[in-house]
Amino acid sequence: MKQSNTFIPTLRELPADAEIKSHQLLLRAGFIRQVASGIYSYLPLGKKVLQKIENIVREEMEQIGAVELLMPALQPAELWQESGRWFSYGPDLMRMNDRHDRPFALGPTHEEVITSLIRDEIKSYKRLPLTLFQIQTKFRDEKRPRYGLLRGREFVMKDAYSFHTSKESLDETYEKMVQAYTNIFTRLGLNFRAVIADSGSIGGKDTHEFMVLSEIGEDTIAYSDASDYAANIEMAEVVTQYEKRDETLKDLQKVNTGEHKTIEEVVNFLQISPEDTIKSLLFNVDGENVLVLVRGDHEVNDVKVKNLLNASIVELASPEQTEEVFGCKIGNIGPVGVNHVKIIADHAVKYVVNGVCGANEAEQHYVNVNPDRDFTVEQYADLRFIKEGDPSPDGKGKIVFAKGIEVGHVFKLGTRYSEAMNAVFLDENGRSQTMIMGCYGIGISRLITAVAEQMADEKGLVWPMSIAPYHVHVIIVNTKDETQWKQGNMIYETLKKQRYEVLLDDRHERAGVKFADSDLFGIPVRIVVGKKINEGIVELKIRKTGETLEIPVDQLQEELDKLLSQLKGSKGQ
């Protein structure tokens, strides 16, 4: 493609509303443009990268026997009502009514549509297992779209669904899918980890996320410093063994703590350790009030609360709701004397001796509080976030944190949707059985940001060969020089015939502008046709390393073949 014929609107100034490196560079290099908050157009360079990621995903999906189809983005509400997600999915679901006032949703995912399709078409065990996938635009009404393509309201996603007659069959497909995802992210050259995760609004039990390590990641990964254990911080199990202090239990006493309400304030006021306090937080769990207790130096993990209680919606009560239930402000609530609210607690709370907690009165706290003597807990469980330095759940090493961008997610759904939507088949004995399902997603457009974030440098984007918009960028330094113009166009045409993807900078621009744009685009190899063409010499530059080579024109094809072969063979190329 000749640069004079395509559409690459570059920016010289740093975009004011772009917070992270990848977003800034994708805008500056003319890959994307914002239409509205969280909604982007993919310009020619961006579209080419997007298509190449899609092709890699297709190749790996087809390699494990998954078959592509395309489902509608517009989904009738009755399917979501069948599954029970019409209201439980929450405000992220974009809802609308047609002219006949029939409710619809713009699909953020397609469990309901695919389940209804298979339910209506497949009746016998002989046609299972089956894995189907699509690559399609999805919609989520994000409260705060940010970081460009990383968190948008409209995005491109690969979603796959598998249907089985047994858990063993699901396990087999799940493992194949995990390997396919590993292949995809390896081909993209990403530094990533597969981590234990929560299934969220999708449902199901066994699930893994694929996280690209990045400081701008919105998820925290807890991993072992001595093994391959890794989990989303929401799902990392706490295996710390607690011990009670050998100390005489003292009499419960109420003390005035004035305006001191937070753990930090109370600790400083009473001159005690955070480990000697009990933090009390009121949650609304599927419409029921639940008081959750953790030790003062720990934080409540609402995902663990949700999983423990097998709940659909878990929300921290507002200050107003808390005051209505307990008659005091948040910082003064506690479990002593509470019998009108269900109480659950983290394991560590059980080992607090002569501790401190709120007294359910303004400016009052209890001291010398002892669990089971002074209040009753309905259930103890692992309810806190793991901390750095905690023992790794697999028994090997200590926990370390890293930030990650979620780019893929695999779920064992089981019968979550097939049971609700009556997707059944007849087994070999003619008996009706519920289908067992798996679900597997990859954020295609999100991967553009992940690759750009990990691989860009101070000059611009640096694409691996596998998804670069072009393999080679040919630059004619001086378009008014007849020899440069002729040789530059000749090299361009020759490389095109050899099936290389080539961008020719034939613009009547200054050399500095062309070189700056070339660095910004991140195309793997640059061929500069400049003054030395009169001596039969061109310059090759490798974008990733900055290495330059002077090559005779008659040897260019051979040297370029070698170079691009090496780049394809290296990780992420």
Described by strand count, sense and barrel closure, the largest sheet is: 9 strands, mixed
Q: Determine the number of helices (DSSP H or I, runs of at least 4 residues).
A: 14
Strand content: 25-35%
So what's the oligomer here? single chain
Terminus-to-terminus distance: 21 Å
Q: How many domains in all? A: 3
Number of strands: 29
Helix-strand category: alpha+beta
The CATH class of the largest domain, by name, is Alpha Beta
* Overall pLDDT level: 94
Poorly predicted spans:
none
Q: Kindly provide the radius of gyration, computed on alpha-carbon positions and rounded to a whole number of angstroms.
A: 29 Å
Look at the structure and name the CATH superfamily of the largest domain.
Bira Bifunctional Protein, Domain 2
| CATH architecture annotation of the largest domain | 2-Layer Sandwich
CATH topology of the largest domain: BirA Bifunctional Protein, domain 2
Folded structure, characterized:
This is Proline--tRNA ligase. The structure is a single chain. With 573 residues, this protein is an alpha+beta fold. The protein has three domains: 275 residues, 2-Layer Sandwich (BirA Bifunctional Protein, domain 2); 129 residues, YbaK protein (Alpha-Beta Complex), CATH 3.90.960; 98 residues, 3-Layer(aba) Sandwich (Rossmann fold). Helices cover 27% and strands 28% of the residues. It contains 14 helices and 29 strands. The strands form seven sheets. Strands 3, 7, 8, 9, 10, 11, 12, 21 and 24 form a nine-stranded mixed beta sheet that branches. The chain has a five-stranded mixed beta sheet with strand order 16-14-15-17-20. Helix 2 crosses helix 11. The longest helix has 21 residues.
